[in-house]
Amino acid sequence: MDGQNITKVVLLACGSFNPITNMHLRMFELARDYLEDTGQYRVVKGIISPVGDAYKKKGLIEACHRLEMARLSTENSDWITVDSWESLQPEWVETCKVIRHHYDEMLAAEQNNDDVDTVKYAKKRRIEENYFDGSSYHKRRDGPQLMLLCGADVLESFGVPKLWKQEDIAEIVGRYGLVCISRSGNDPHKFIHQSDMLWKYRKSIHVVQEWVTNEISATHVRRSLRRGRSIRYLLPDNVVDYIREHGLYSDESERKNADVVLAPLERYTGASSS
Ligand SMILES: Nc1ncnc2c1ncn2[C@@H]1O[C@H](COP(=O)(O)OP(=O)(O)OP(=O)(O)O)[C@@H](O)[C@H]1O
Ligand SMILES: O=C(O)c1ccc[n+]([C@@H]2O[C@H](COP(=O)([O-])O)[C@@H](O)[C@H]2O)c1
C-alpha cells in the first residue's frame, strides 16, 4: 500500500461517559477497523473527552469520577487516551469548540516537531489550505485529520430544535468529519438523507454498522446500580470496582440537575449558565 496517500486520523469522542461502558470503548475499535478497511486512513489516536459538570444533564455525576473511570478503562490501551480539558472548564463548552481545541493542539504538536524553517513554512502554507470558502471546507493535504466519533443518537440529535447551532454542525461535518456508529432505534442513513445539510457533507460522514446488536447504555448501568443489580461485564472490571469503592450512582445522584435546563438549551431560554 502506498503510505503517501494514507491520511492519519485522530478520533475524538465527546459525551457524558456517566459512566464509561464497554460500548464506548468498542466504538473506537469499530471506527478504526472501518476507516482502515477503506485503505485511505490510518487511525493513530483516540481521545475520550468527558463533558464538564456545567452541561447539567440529569444524573450527571462529578467530572472527576467520570474522568477517573474513563482513565481506568483505557489504561491497557495503546492508542485510546482520556483528555481532561473539556471536563475542567467552568462553563459548558460547545462540541465544535472542543474539536477546535484538540485540532489546535494537534497542529501545535506537529509544528513543534519541525525544526527546519523551510519545513515550518511549508507546514504553515498547508495549514492555511484548511479553510472555508463560504460554501465548503478545503481540507489540508497532510497532517492528521481530526474526526468526531459518536453514536447514531448523537447524529440524530442534530435535528432536535435549538439543541445544536447549524453553523457548528456544518463545521463539524464539513471541516473535520464524523464517524457515526449505528445504534438500535436509530437510522443514520435515513437521517442523513432527510437533512439537506448532512446530505451536502455526506462524504465526510462515515456510518459504521455495529452488527452485534448492542444496547449497552450508561442509563442502563445507572439503573441497574440503583436496583442493586450486577453491572459486571457491561464495563471494565476496574471501573466496576471504582463505582463500588466510591458508592457512585444512587437515587440521589440520579436526581441531580432534574430541575435545571440542559446547558445547550440555556442559550435560547436566556437562563444563567453559571
Ligand atoms: N450502545 C451504543 N451504541 C452506539 N453508540 C453508543 C452506544 N452507547 C453510547 N454510544 C455513544 O457514545 C457517546 C457517548 O455517549 P454517552 O456518554 O451519552 O453514553 P450513553 O450510554 O448514550 O449515555 P446515557 O445513557 O447516559 O444517555 C455518544 O456518541 C453515544 O452515541
Ligand atoms: O455543541 C453543541 O451545541 C451540543 C449540543 C448538545 C450536546 N452536545 C454534546 O454532545 C454530547 C452529548 O452527550 P450526551 O451524554 O448528552 O448524549 C456532549 O458531549 C455534549 O456536550 C453538544
From TrEMBL:
Domain named Cytidyltransferase-like: residues: 12-223
Essential cofactor(s): Mg(2+); Zn(2+)
Pfam families with a match to the protein in the record: CTP_transf_like
UniProt keyword terms in alphabetical order: ATP-binding, Magnesium, NAD, Nucleotide-binding, Nucleotidyltransferase, Nucleus, Phosphoprotein, Pyridine nucleotide biosynthesis, Transferase, Zinc
Main location: nucleus
Subcellular location: Nucleus
Pathway info: Cofactor biosynthesis; NAD(+) biosynthesis; deamido-NAD(+) from nicotinate D-ribonucleotide: step 1/1; Cofactor biosynthesis; NAD(+) biosynthesis; NAD(+) from nicotinamide D-ribonucleotide: step 1/1
Reactions accelerated catalytically: beta-nicotinamide D-ribonucleotide + ATP + H(+) = diphosphate + NAD(+); nicotinate beta-D-ribonucleotide + ATP + H(+) = deamido-NAD(+) + diphosphate
InterPro entries in the cross-refs: Cyt_trans-like, Euk_NMN_adenylyltrnsfrase, NadD/NMNAT, NMNAT_euk, Rossmann-like_a/b/a_fold
SUPFAM superfamilies named in the record: Nucleotidylyl transferase
Enzyme Commission identifier(s): 2.7.7.1, 2.7.7.18
NCBIfam families linked to this entry: nicotinate (nicotinamide) nucleotide adenylyltransferase
Family in the record: Belongs to the eukaryotic NMN adenylyltransferase family.
Name of the protein in its database record: Nicotinamide-nucleotide adenylyltransferase
Species this chain originates from: Perca flavescens (American yellow perch)
